[in-house]
Amino acid sequence: MTPVRVKNVTSTGTICSDESMTGSLNNILFDDGRKTTPLNDVCDQLFLVTKDSGNDRFVRYAVLLALSAVIATGGIIVDSTATVIGAMIVAPLATPILAVGLAITTVRPRQVITSGIILAISVAFVVFIGIALNIILPATVNLEQNSQVLSRISPNLVDLLIAIATGLVGGFAITRSDLAGVLPGVAIAISLVPPLSVVGVVLSEGGFQQAWGAMLLFLSNAVAMIGAGALVFTIAGYNAAARHSRRMVRQPILVVSVLSILLVAVLAVTSLQSLAQGVSVTRIESATSTWLAGSKYSLTSVTAVPGGFIITIIGTGDVPDTRLFYDNFLPVLWFDPDIQVRQLSGSVEPLPEPGPTPTPS
Question: Which of 70, 304, 78 lies closest to 194 in space, CA to CA?
Fold first, then answer.
């Protein structure tokens, strides 16, 4: 058997290719290393705190993170998609996430811990800003109707697949010297700060279940980005610059692996719930139409809420007996949703004249 040949690291930190499978991919994706960004440059870009970096890099990161959290929280509160997208572009949270992947790839246990601590503090910081701003600002967030909230509290396996693909693109853009222009697109594609802002906003409104869903979305995105980034960094050849035995990073690799398995299991359940929810909405609409047939009421919408659904109907007079609804509605599998009805009169009346002015006593 021909042994695998691994070339040395160049003086600029560029990793030369080998003859293994990763070497073949390196030849295809990085033009045999000629388009690979030098490792030292990638480290300078991703490692926020090192022995020689000083505090400037971390301070710039913290300022951008705070501003992006304020923008994202404001966009969520006013339900503005454009504002939230702006926060995605500004947000630097992908930096410590990819730094963890790079530190694992190059076997730098101290940098794994440092980047992990920065990431954990960043998560808590963004959630805190979300809580604080929602309490301070004179605005009310309707958790049942705010599109920014609703789109981030029910992650599924599709979201994980998107996160993996985005992580691969993000790692590829950083490690290939001529693809830096795609990074803004990566920032928009993967959602990091907005889900954390949603966690803060809904926690301040008492929506603990919605907060869990938003945090689950962030965790799936972060873990997928770490794994995908580490894969790309390996293909780029950075693993050849490992400073220690790979046993030194066995624990973080185990943590990422276990989290990945748990997230896949949880997201599989949420995917099943989403599918059941979609089927349930269709069945509720059909049963409601049968129930209201011949009455003075009509169906306006069926809205999914935690634990069940709200049927909104509009009309006048007495609401028909619900026996027809229950006779025609078949729950999906073992799901037994809590169904509520919101009744709208649909009438338009003139504003009554004001009452008599109270006589001062």
Answer: 70
What is the edge-to-edge ordering of all strands in the sheet holding 338-344?
297-305, 308-315, 338-344
Euclidean distance between CA atoms 183 and 40, whole angstroms: 19
- Those residues whose C-beta lies under 8 Å from the C-beta of residue 321, and which sit 6 or more positions away, are none
Q: Does the structure show a pLDDT above 70 at 254? A: yes
DSSP 176: B
Model confidence at 290, in pLDDT bands (50, 70, 90)?
A: very high
Q: In whole angstroms, give the CA distance from residue 132 to residue 134.
A: 6
**Per-domain boundaries in the chain:** 21-244, 279-344
- 324 is written with which tokens? 């027809």
| pLDDT on residue 7 | 44
Among the listed residues 176, 171, 188, the one whose alpha carbon sits nearest the alpha carbon of residue 90: 188
Instruction: State whether residue 334 is helix, strand or coil.
Output: coil
Environment class of 5 (CB within 10 Å of its CB; exposed 0-12, middle 13-18, buried 19+): exposed
The full DSSP string for 141-165 is: --TTT-HHHHTTS---HHHHHHHHH
DSSP symbol at 335: -
132 closest CA partner among 83, 218, 203, 208: 203
Residue keyed to tokens 């001062």: 360
Tell the residue number behind the tokens 């410590």, with chain if given.
Answer: 96
CB-count burial class (<10 Å; 0-12, 13-18, 19+) for 65:
buried
Beta bridge partners of 314: 298, 344
Query: Is 14 a residue whose pLDDT tops 60?
Result: no
User: Whose CA is closest to 335, among 298, 308, 299, 305?
Assistant: 308
